[in-house]
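Hi,

I'm pasting everything inline rather than attaching a file, because the server keeps stripping attachments. The sequence lines come first, and each chain or strand is labelled.
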Amino acid sequence: EAGVAQSPRYKIIEKRQSVAFWCNPISGHATLYWYQQILGQGPKLLIQFQNNGVVDDSQLPKDRFSAERLKGVDSTLKIQPAKLEDSAVYLCASSSRVGAPGNTIYFGEGSWLTVV
Amino acid sequence: DAKTTQPNSMESNEEEPVHLPCNHSTISGTDYIHWYRQLPSQGPEYVIHGLTSNVNNRMASLAIAEDRKSSTLILHRATLRDAAVYYCILKGMRGSARQLTFGSGTQLTVLP
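And the predicted assembly:
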């Protein structure tokens, strides 16, 4: 079974530029997550989708971050304009059922962003 | 606010058992205990989860205290490939508890 796919794997941009990350979840998984992981810290949830609707985006900095999941499958996360503190790994994850406490979440390898 | 407490780091010798502790004194009756691990330059991967009874799978065992205020992840024979950050996470049924909220985890070093 194919895992969660993410691209690009690595990206270096200058501050104030924009960047977009793409995620393809495991086939059939209705729930998709974007996490941000700053070096030395655990991942932090940015946004959660159920199909193509947003379940939770309370920690997404909406002045510069946006995410969409058209057609309930692939998703993109955009940062515009980027700041130095956005340097992090952006992890996409998916699961088959939202909210179920025994549910397993599967993560992609992440997209590494460096803002200079 | 952190709901679990783990040591920052632990060391183990290769081919020996490893016991990774986790305290969760404020656990509610419907919270599941999840363990994920993150190898270097990889995304987190699921290890094991449980509610009340001890659990075993091909990767590890999970021992849950009778009062559920603590748990221990057991790797029966550590290998160099088990060197990773191990996260103990509570996952519940309501509100933000339904999310997988990561703390800082335990960095496990396996010595050859």
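The first strand of chain A starts at residue 5 and ends at 7.

If the labels don't parse on your end, tell me and I'll reformat.
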